């Protein structure tokens, strides 16, 4: 009994001690956790980040999420540019191969002798020599054919000879003297004459040729022998008639034709310039608010300032400089040639923009870059005050004087085709052309001697403002008057003729008493009545008068 009671008592003591042990164990665990937390708070080395820092670390510096996102964007853009450059390189190689293949085919074609297309028929029962055999003339550009042998006597307007003239051979100006008929005085049945070559094209053939074809014909005839006798020499009346017919055609040759300009530039050294670059690829797309890469430089395009149909002018920037880009569908670098000529003959070439030209397979891009601390502004975008217009007029007179001094004509002066290159100091600012489409180089084009040969002058001639035989420089004087009138009044100039000659309608009459208004009236009268005077003297005198007012 005592034993049982002792056992029960021991079990009860154990049951009472067990909760105390659990409580003590819980306290120990809590203390252990508190100690661990304390260690973490004290050392800080055991902290674990909520994100992976390795992706943000660059060297010893940790990037932000925005910087990491920008880095990935730049890497993607770099890969895209490399892929685009690779495609362009492959396209350039392909075009180079095609160009070499075409050159090879062209050389092969030139190396093959060209056989003359000639057809003749000889009667089997005729006893005449082969040289006197009868033959027909066919012109494939006409439906009518000459009569065959055996037909009745031909009319006086037809030849009893036959030669096949293919369209490509019309420019050869081949004149074949046919055998004389027995019924002609002094002729016999065996009278034969060798074919002779005319040094001048036949009048009928010349009427059918375009001006450019005619230029090529005249150039090709220089290789003919001058010792051969022309049948026209036997008939002075026909010679005089042909010369009379030829003169209007020669005057109709357009000096602004791209083919004419291409041949002229072949005679100059423009292709040797280090600022002229050729690229064997199509003309790149140039659009507003975009960029274009030219010669290793990236040009940012801001806006289109001129849309000329076959060309456009864009305003943009490269590095910290303003640029103007003329994108032309013609691959003849005429603008580059003309501006280079102007800059080479300028005493202040350092203040003129830099120019470069990029030739492509189907066009060219001419780039004007401002000198340091300069900027480009449109003439009509500046201050419209009379003082500002006076400074621009002085700069425009100076520009045209420089053009005429080195025998250049612009022939299409208009505010939209001119730019104002300035620094903020009025007397040092320059007015410059950014389009030379209608311009003429009188050193290369010495045949241009009157305004009737300039397409831009035809309106002035029809109004009677210019005589057809007036010197070509007068076109630029009228252009100066039109440009300044538009800047002064924001209206197109209307020329009228009064007792003092031609003047602008808004400045005609003698009622002006203000000295500035009188000056502008004299300005327009001097420019519009310069017949018989030197353009340089007129421009110099007006520049001095304006400078004395707007100093």
From TrEMBL:
Output compositional bias ranges, type Low complexity: 246-255
Q: Cross-referenced CDD domains, in alphabetical order?
A: bZIP
Q: Name one GO cellular component term.
A: nucleus
Task: Give the residue ranges for region: Disordered.
Answer: 104-255
GO molecular-function terms, A-Z: protein kinase activity
* Gene Ontology biological process terms in this record: meiotic sister chromatid cohesion, centromeric; mitotic spindle assembly checkpoint signaling
Query: Which InterPro entries does this one have?
Result: Bub1/Mad3
Bias kind Basic and acidic residues: ranges: 104-117
Q: Where is the sequence biased in composition, kind Polar residues?
A: 186-200, 212-229
User: What is this protein called in UniProt?
Assistant: Protein kinase domain-containing protein
């Amino acid at each position: 009994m005592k034993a049982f009671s002792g056992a029960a008592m021991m079990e009860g003591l154990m049951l009472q001690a067990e909760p105390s042990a659990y409580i003590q164990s819980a306290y120990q665990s809590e203390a252990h956790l508190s100690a661990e937390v304390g260690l973490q708070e004290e050392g800080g080395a055991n902290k674990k980040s909520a994100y992976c820092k390795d992706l943000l670390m660059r060297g010893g510096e940790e990037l932000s999420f925005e910087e990491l996102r920008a880095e990935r964007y730049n890497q993607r853009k770099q890969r895209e540019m490399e892929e685009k450059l690779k495609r362009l390189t492959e396209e350039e190689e392909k075009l180079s191969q095609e160009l070499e293949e075409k050159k090879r085919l062209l050389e092969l074609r030139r190396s093959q002798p060209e056989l003359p297309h000639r057809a003749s028929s000889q009667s089997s029962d005729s006893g005449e020599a082969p040289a006197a055999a009868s033959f027909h003339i066919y012109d494939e550009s006409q439906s009518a054919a000459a009569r065959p042998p055996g037909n009745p006597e031909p009319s006086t307007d037809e030849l009893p000879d036959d030669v096949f003239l293919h369209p490509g051979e019309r420019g050869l100006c081949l004149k074949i003297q046919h055998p004389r008929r027995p019924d002609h005085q002094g002729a016999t049945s065996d009278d034969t004459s060798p074919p002779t070559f005319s040094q001048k094209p036949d009048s009928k053939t010349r009427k059918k040729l375009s001006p450019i074809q005619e230029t090529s014909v005249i150039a090709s005839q220089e290789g003919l022998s001058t010792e051969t006798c022309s049948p026209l020499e036997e008939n002075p009346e026909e010679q005089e008639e042909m010369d009379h017919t030829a003169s209007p055609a020669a005057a109709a040759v357009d000096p602004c034709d791209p083919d004419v300009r291409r041949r002229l530039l072949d005679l100059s050294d423009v292709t040797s310039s280090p600022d002229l670059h050729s690229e064997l690829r199509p003309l790149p797309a140039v659009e507003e608010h975009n960029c274009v890469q030219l010669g290793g430089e990236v040009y940012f395009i801001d806006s289109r300032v001129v849309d000329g149909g076959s060309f456009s002018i864009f305003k943009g920037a490269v590095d910290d400089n303003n640029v103007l880009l003329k994108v032309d569908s013609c691959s003849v670098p005429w603008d580059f040639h003309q501006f280079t000529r102007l800059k080479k003959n300028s005493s202040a070439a350092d203040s003129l923009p830099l120019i470069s030209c990029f030739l492509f397979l189907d066009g060219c891009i001419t780039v004007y870059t401002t000198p340091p601390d300069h900027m480009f502004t449109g003439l009509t975008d500046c201050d419209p005050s009379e003082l500002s217009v006076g400074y621009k007029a002085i700069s425009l007179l100076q520009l045209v004087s420089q053009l005429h001094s080195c025998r250049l004509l612009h022939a299409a002066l208009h505010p939209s085709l001119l730019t104002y290159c300035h620094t903020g100091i009025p007397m040092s600012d320059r007015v410059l052309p950014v389009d030379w489409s209608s311009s003429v180089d009188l050193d290369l084009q010495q045949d241009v001697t009157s305004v009737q040969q300039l397409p831009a002058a035809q309106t002035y001639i029809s109004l009677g403002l210019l005589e057809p035989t007036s010197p070509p420089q007068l076109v630029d004087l009228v252009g100066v008057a039109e440009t300044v009138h538009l800047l002064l009044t924001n209206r197109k100039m209307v020329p009228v003729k009064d007792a003092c000659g031609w003047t602008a309608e808004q400045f005609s009459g003698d009622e002006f008493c203000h000295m500035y208004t009188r000056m502008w009236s004299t300005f327009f009268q001097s420019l519009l009545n310069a017949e018989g005077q030197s353009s340089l003297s007129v421009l110099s005198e007006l520049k001095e008068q304006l400078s004395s007012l707007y100093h």
